[in-house]
Amino acid sequence: MNSVRRTTSILRNEYHGAGIDPGDFAEDPILQFERWMEDAITHKVREPNAVHLATADAEGRPSGRIVLLRDFSERGFSFFTNYSSRKGEELDRNNHAAMTFFWNELYRQVRIRGKVFRLPAEESDAYFRSRPRQSQISALVSQQSRELENREMLERMADEAEEKYRDRPVPRPEEWGGYYLAPDYVEFWQGREHRLHDRLQYTRTAPEGGWTIRLLYP
Ligand SMILES: Cc1cc2nc3c(=O)[nH]c(=O)nc-3n(C[C@H](O)[C@H](O)[C@H](O)COP(=O)(O)O)c2cc1C
Questions:
Q1: S-S: 55 plus which of 90, 94, 182, 197, CB 3.0-4.6 Å?
Q2: Is the beta carbon of 49 within 6 A of some atom in ligand 1?
């Protein structure tokens, strides 16, 4: 309880930013996201690309976890994971998802919603090849989100894979790869004094359509 109170008071005293001037905001939320991501990097936000990803199963029961944003472009926001994990299975049945960034040091939040699609296999191959060998080995042996009997078993599997692929490239497991979230909703939130926060919402009704911009009450 104490620690919760402490966190709240840190937030209250946080940097409140300059506020959102809609006139200065890009017409395209991806461009605006790029500016805010650059700000986050410049202001040395810790793990600026760590993002909460919410999915829901076929019955609508939600589930959230952090992933690392690997890239973003007009197509959407991409991340890598195991296609057979809980999130992978949920996305197979219901590809609606949401991402939330929180950049505490800037008192900013970005909320994104849309549909998720798998990246082409060549892109997953290219990214897998670029990863450190140890990460490739763990992707190979981890049956993400399945029950693990004990830690030793995981380490033994990693050692065995290491031995097996000693002199050759580690192949990308078929169930490991990327997704991108194609947004139809992006909202920028800037914390301000006295809780008179700024919110700017971008929505579109067609995948290639133009964006409608609205201010929202905090
Ligand atoms: C900072 C941070 C970064 C993470 N990045 C990833 C990631 O990029 N991909 C991934 O599959 N899991 C990542 N994880 C682990 C996930 O939060 C989660 O435990 C895992 O993906 C299994 O989730 P699921 O059972 O809902 O599928 C990360 C966790 C943290 C705390």
A1: 90
A2: no
Residue 112 alpha carbon to ligand 1 centre in Å? 18
Centroid of ligand 1 to alpha carbon of 53 (angstroms) = 9
Nearest CA to ligand 1 atom 4: 67
Residue-level pLDDT, tens digit, the chain, 218 residues: 445 554 444 444 455 567 898 889 999 999 999 999 999 999 999 999 999 999 999 999 999 999 999 999 999 999 999 999 999 999 999 999 999 999 999 999 999 999 999 999 999 999 999 999 999 999 999 999 999 999 999 999 999 999 999 999 999 999 999 999 999 999 999 999 998 999 999 999 998 889 999 999 99
CB distance 120 to 129 below 8 Å: no
In a domain, 110, yes or no: yes
Which residue range(s) make up the domain with 115?
2-123+180-215
Q: What is the pTM of this model?
A: 0.92
- Residues in CB range of 168: below 8 A, 6 or more apart: none
Q: Is 195 among the residues known to form the active site?
A: yes
**Cα distance between residue 66 and residue 100, in whole Å:** 9
**Within-domain flag for 133:** no
Q: Is 172 in the pocket of ligand 1 (CB under 6 A)?
A: no
